[in-house]
Amino acid sequence: MPSKPNTQGNGITQRLARFSSELVIPRHIDIWMPPGYHEDDQRYPVIYMHDGQNLFDPALAYGNVDWAVDEAISRLIATRGLHGAIVVGIWNSEFRWQEYMPAKPLKGPAMKQISADFADSAGGPSIADAYLKFIVSELKPYIDAHFRTLPDQPNTFIMGSSMGALVSLYAVSEYPDVFGGAGCISPHWPVGGDLLVDAMSASLPGPANHKLYFDFGTQTLDETYEPFQRRMDEHLRRAGYEEGRNWVTRKFEGAEHSERFWRERVDIPLAFLLASE
Predict the structure, then answer these.
(1) Phi and psi angles of residue 2, each rounded to the nearest 5 degrees, phi first
(2) 229, 249 Cβ separation under 8 angstroms
(3) What percent of the chain lies above the pLDDT cut of 90?
(4) Pairing mode, if any, of strands 86-90 and 46-49?
(5) Taking the alpha carbons of 118, 123, 125, 130 in that order, is the dihedral positive or negative?
(6) Which of 163, 181, 217, 245 has the fewest CB atoms inside 10 Å of its own CB, making it the most exposed?
(7) pLDDT band at 185; cut points 50, 70, 90
(8) What is the pairing mode between strands 156-161 and 86-90?
(9) What is the DSSP letter of 236?
(10) Distance, CA of 255 to CA of 250 (rounded, Å)
(11) Helices 112-122/193-201 angle, 10° precision
C-alpha cells in the first residue's frame, strides 16, 4: 500500500513500501511528484532511477548525502522553464551488483573469464534481465496506472550512477521502445573493461529517437574511467550519435565517485534528458 504523501516545497514524495514482484525481491519505491502536481491535471515525463534511497533524503542516503533530485528538478522548472517530471526511485537490494550488471554482454566467448570473475565476486551471476523486466512489466504499468504520466517512449527515461549507470545503458538497449534516453553517471566500466564497452556498444539503441548522457570524474574510482568512456564515445560516433544533440559526455575535473559529487552535477543530465527537441 502507498504511504501517505510527504508534501514539501520541492514537490511531493510518496512511498510504495516493499513493492512486490514475481521477478525480484521486494523493495521500496519512492515516487516524487513536482510542485503543482495536485493543483492541475497535467501529465509528466517519468525518470526511473536506481539506488532510490539515495535520491531525496540524506537520512537514508549512503554517507548521509542525497542527490537532491527533487531540488534539482524544481530549480530547472524555475530557471529554465522545463515542464518537470515524475521521478521513480527504485531502492537497491542485497543483490545490487547482480541486478545492475548487464547480462547479455557477459555471454559472448570473449567474456567467459569476466563473467566467471564477476559471479565469484558478486555472489552469483547477473540477474539484470529479471530486474529490467520487473521495471518494464511490473513497475512501469503500476506507475502509469496510478500517476499522471506521459507513458510513451519519448517521455520515459532511466538513470543511475556507477553500476546503476551500466544497467541504465543496458535498459535503453534492451527496451528501446520503452525508454527514450538514459543518464549514465560515472559508469563503472572497469568491472568488464574494454570487452564490456565493446559488447555493450554492439546493441546501442538507434540514435534517431534516443538520448544518451555519460560523465565521469577524475578522482577515486572515477580516476580510471576516462579511457573506457572515450572508447565508448568512438562507438557512439560510429553508431550515428551526434555529440551535443542526442549524446553528451562530460568530464568533471576533481570529481570523486560519490553522492556528494553526483549531487553537484545532477542538474546537467536531468536538463539534457528533459529538454524539448
Answers:
(1) -65, 145
(2) yes
(3) 93
(4) parallel
(5) negative
(6) 245
(7) very high
(8) unpaired
(9) H
(10) 11
(11) 110
Terminal C-alpha separation, the chain: 37
| Rg over CA atoms, the chain | 18
Q: Please, what is the Cα angle at 267 between 42 and 200, to 5 degrees?
A: 100
Q: Which residues contact 1 (CB under 8 A, 6 or more apart)?
A: 17
Pairing of strands 247-252, 211-217: parallel
Asked whether the beta carbons of 74 and 32 are under 8 A apart, the reply is no
Give which of 163, 148, 162 is closest to 31, Cα–Cα. 148
Mean predicted confidence (pLDDT) in 72-89? 95
Alpha helices, DSSP H, located in 48-191: 69-80, 96-100, 112-122, 128-134, 140-146, 163-174
- Give the DSSP H or E segment for 211: strand 211-217
In sequence order, the β-bridge partners of residue 156 are 46
Neighbour order of strands in the sheet with 247-252: 6-8, 11-19, 27-33, 86-90, 46-49, 156-161, 181-185, 211-217, 247-252
CA 63 from centre of chain? 20
Cell 504523501 identifies what position?
5
Domain ranges across the chain: 6-274
Beta bridge partners of 33: 12
Rounded to whole angstroms, how far apart are CA atoms 22 and 19? 10
**What pLDDT shows up at residue 6?**
57
What top-level class would CATH report for the domain 6-274? alpha beta
Residue whose C-alpha cell is 514475481: 22
DSSP character for 161? E
